[in-house]
């Protein structure tokens, strides 16, 4: 079997995935050489991937220090939720009534969220709750909105780490379930209203005073270590 080609896009996708699962935390140091060694690529390729992520607001470079996972400001956190409040309800408003296959996929996703919550699997829970919004955009068939939701969801994960206390995830899982059932009933207006309420509930938990209590740790090697080939899909 040939070895998969590692591109700057694949490196960037792996870093974003690690943000969505809350493995990479705001302020985490991203050593170019460490990443290059892990993926067995040149530092030039890693730098290109990091520069791409910098343009999307996920990483930042500090003069004479290096690359770090971005730490969005409180104002940027508020702006992110304001953007989501425009994008996501509008996405549902124009959705029409989803096909049964789409509803099946969304309900399966919600069931996986519940399982992760019940099992106390923090990594899977973080990923699935964020990924629901990406999955919804995918199911509605708009690839541009899907790309936008990847960025908004990853940014929201960073924001949650900095400015939000941990709460019962089941509440947000229930919100997701209610949105899907409204779509299943063909009640797009209710789905839109439920999404607005969901985003407002998330935004209401922003607390600028929490940022000083968070501490970034450099766990890059264990986070990004390539999966064993025997377990790869």
From TrEMBL:
Q: Which residues form the HTH gntR-type domain?
A: 5-72
Q: Which Gene3D superfamilies match?
A: GntR ligand-binding domain-like, Winged helix-like DNA-binding domain superfamily/Winged helix DNA-binding domain
Looking up InterPro entries in the UniProt record yields: GntR_C, TF_FadR/GntR_C, Tscrpt_reg_HTH_GntR, WH-like_DNA-bd_sf, WH_DNA-bd_sf
Q: Which GO terms describe its molecular function?
A: DNA binding; DNA-binding transcription factor activity
Which keywords fit this entry according to its UniProt record?
DNA-binding, Transcription, Transcription regulation
User: Coiled-coil segments, which residues?
Assistant: none
Q: Which domain of life is it from?
A: Bacteria
This chain belongs to which protein, by name?
A: L-lactate utilization operon repressor
Q: Which organism is it from?
A: Comamonas testosteroni
Gene name of this polypeptide: lutR_3
């Amino acid at each position: 079997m040939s070895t998969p080609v590692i591109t700057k896009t694949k490196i960037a996708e792996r870093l974003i995935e690690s943000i969505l699962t809350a493995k990479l935390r705001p302020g985490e140091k991203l050593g170019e050489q460490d990443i290059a060694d892990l993926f067995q690529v040149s530092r030039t390729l890693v730098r290109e991937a990091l520069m791409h992520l910098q343009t999307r607001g996920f990483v930042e470079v500090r003069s004479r220090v290096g690359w770090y996972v971005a730490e969005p400001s409180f104002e940027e956190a508020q702006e992110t939720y304001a953007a989501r409040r425009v994008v996501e309800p509008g996405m549902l408003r124009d959705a029409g009534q989803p096909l049964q296959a789409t509803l099946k996929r969304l309900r399966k996703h919600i069931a996986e969220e519940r399982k992760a919550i019940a099992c106390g699997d923090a990594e899977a829970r973080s990923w699935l709750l964020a990924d629901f919004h990406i999955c919804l955009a995918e199911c509605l068939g708009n690839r541009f909105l899907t790309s936008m939701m990847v960025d908004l969801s990853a940014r929201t994960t960073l924001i949650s780490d900095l400015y939000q206390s941990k709460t019962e995830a089941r509440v947000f899982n229930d919100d997701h379930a209610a949105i899907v059932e409204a779509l299943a009933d063909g009640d797009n207006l209710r789905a839109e209203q439920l999404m607005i309420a969901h985003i407002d509930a998330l935004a209401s938990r922003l607390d600028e005073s929490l940022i000083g209590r968070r501490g970034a740790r450099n766990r890059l090697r264990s986070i990004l270590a390539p999966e064993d080939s025997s377990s790869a899909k």
